[in-house]
Specification:
The protein contains eight helices and eight strands; from the N terminus they run H-E-H-E-E-H-E-H-E-H-E-H-E-H-E-H. With about 190 residues, it is an alpha/beta fold. A six-stranded parallel beta sheet has the order 5-4-1-6-7-8, sandwiched between helices. A two-stranded antiparallel sheet has the order 2-3.
């Protein structure tokens, strides 16, 4: 069952670092899409089609996490075909769209995966992300985030949204993660 943090969360200064032990514990990186995986801009054509820009750096970071056996999820408050398409390209196993209560969506996913809050890192940038940022073992955001997200974040990236911020967090997780166990060769 997913555990939660105490309701009184100690505010951690953006200048403080998250402990290596906390990064090593992460088994799920869950991300907001607009404003984290993208710079927050949505382009809408006259025909109604939508486009977004995603960073190749971030994509490589998520691919490396998946290869290391760390789950990746995208949780968005709004449905988007562009989001689905990019998630398919990267083989992101958990894509949740149209959920405004992101803390609840994150906690439900963590429970399905047999994880507690301390096993999760959530990265978001807006007011609706703040409860999920506060719930996760590591809550992360970007410098351009809204005050509610900044207030509860344990970690604020140096790189901007949509331009390597996610990769920065992926690298911190990977730098402390234990190697995935290798399968033994079958004996003849």
């Amino acid at each position: 069952m997913a555990s939660s943090k105490p309701s009184r969360r100690r505010h951690v200064s953006r200048s403080q670092t998250v402990s290596p032990r906390a990064w090593a514990r992460v088994r799920l990186l869950a991300l907001d899409v607009d404003g984290i995986l993208t710079d927050g801009t949505i382009y809408v054509s006259s025909d109604g089609s939508e486009t977004k820009g995603f960073s190749v750096l971030d994509g490589m970071g998520m691919a490396r996490l998946l290869k290391a056996g760390i789950a990746v999820a995208w949780i968005s408050g709004r449905p988007s075909g562009a989001t689905v398409r990019r998630a398919e390209e990267l083989r992101i196993p958990h894509v949740i769209q149209g959920r405004s209560d992101k803390r609840e969506a994150l906690a439900e996913l963590a429970q399905r995966l047999g994880l507690g809050a301390s096993d999760c890192c959530y990265m978001g940038d807006d007011d609706i992300d703040a409860p999920a940022i506060a719930w996760a073992g590591i809550g992360a955001t970007v410098r351009s985030a809204m005050p509610a997200a900044l207030k509860v974040a344990d970690y604020v990236t140096q790189r901007p949204a949509g331009a390597g911020a996610v990769r920065e967090v992926c690298e911190l997780i990977l730098s402390q993660s234990r190697p995935a166990p290798r399968a033994r060769a079958a004996r003849p």
